[in-house]
Amino acid sequence: MEHGVAHEAFDAGEARYELVVSVDARRSGQYNDAEKPRMRQRIYRVLESALAQAGVVRDAVHMEDRGDGVLMSVPGRIAVSRLLGLWMVEVHENLREENGSLLVPLGLRVAMHVGPVRHDSRGISGRAVDLTCRLADSSVARELLDRERADLVLAVSDSLYADVVQAGGKFIDPARFAPARLALKEGAVTAWLHLPGRPAPDTGALGPEEPAGGGVAGTGGAPGTGGVPGAGGGTAVSSAAPPLGAVDGGDADGEGVDDEGFGDGFDDEDGDASVRYAAQGDLSVHQHNVYQQPVHIGRVTGAGPRKD
After folding, report:
1. By the 8 A CB rule, do 180 and 190 touch?
2. At 175, phi and psi to the nearest 5?
3. For residue 222, how many C-alpha atoms fall within 13 Å in the half-sphere facing its CB?
4. For residues 6-36, b (16+ Cβ closer than 10 Å) or e, as one string?
5. What burial letters (b/e) apply to 121-133, b meaning 16+ CB within 10 Å?
6. Higher pLDDT, 60 or 297
7. What is the pLDDT, as a whole number, of residue 26?
8. What is residue 90's predicted lDDT score, i.e. its pLDDT?
9. Cβ–Cβ under 8 Å, residues 171 and 85
10. What interhelical angle do 88-99 and 36-53 show, nearest 10?
């Protein structure tokens, strides 16, 4: 594919500080072979029209096709604030227009980061590229897009937020961004999430996601996590919406791997799948019960007599 931007020299050892943008389609695996080409056309129409509307020359931007999305890099001579501000506004408006005629709306996860990028004849590479793609593909971005039923979510790196977003500017309001802690393959990082056209999303007070067997993410009674003591010394987490920042465990299209197992989320007897539990030790769940006399719940420990 033609990359669209002509560099003075393709030198894999020469790094250029550029804005990297990763765009992924929501649940792309659910599109069949006949629908995917149309989905891809919509993505390019949304992004390229927004470049023109934001006054960014298309040939100045490197674009790589990713099947269900696009990877972009923008040279330093183009202001980052132009892409973070006006371009994102136009992307959102174009996407809303596209979705107006669709039964299943197209959802996009967009991530941005500035860092050293290396170009060669096949595309771009570098840790800045890796980080940007990880942000767009994170479980936090996926869950936020679904939970809020939004068309678009933007995730920016902590450094980009500090360097550009925090200062504000035309079409850039730092008060509409909220931080979240993400556990990526390279380690835990902070990202800032934004839903265009909406107030700052409720990401909760998130800590680093724990590796398997290393604890329960979101517990310990931190503000906004809903952590409460469980019967018998365990820990339970219950929230009206799934907590953001859970350990990535879905497939490549963001689908959960187990909707029946404890610690992931399961239907209660009324079919409410929004209640989620994560436990260590004993877990006791009691719903819709009426007790006519004193009862004891949990285990008796120590030598003392049991008290009802």
Report:
1. yes
2. -70, -15
3. 13
4. eeeeeeeeebbebbbbbbbbbbbeebeeeee
5. eebbebebbbbbb
6. 60
7. 87
8. 97
9. yes
10. 140
Torsion angles phi and psi, residue 220, rounded to 5: 95, 5
Alpha-carbon Rg of the chain, whole angstroms? 23
Q: Which amino acid is at 177?
A: F
* pLDDT tens-digit readout, 214-231: 333 333 333 333 333 333
Give 142: exposed, middle or buried? Use CB within 10 Å, 0-12, 13-18, 19+. Answer: buried
DSSP 8-class letter at 288: S
Residue 195 has pLDDT above 50, yes or no: yes
| CB proximity list for 121: less than 8 A, separation 6 or greater | 10
Minimum mean pLDDT range among 3-17, 46-60, 154-168, 197-211 = 3-17
CB neighbour list of residue 216: distance below 8 Å, 6 or more residues apart: 210, 235, 237, 263, 278, 279, 280
Q: Which two tokens stand for residue 43?
A: 């993505």
pLDDT of residue 20: 98
| Whether this model's pTM surpasses 0.85 | no
CA distance 182 to 248: 9
Residue by residue, DSSP assigns 15-48 as: EEEEEEEEEEETTGGGS-TTTHHHHHHHHHHHHH
The first and second tokens of residue 216, run together, are 């329960």
Query: How many CA atoms lie less than 13 Å away from 273 in the CB half-sphere?
Result: 7
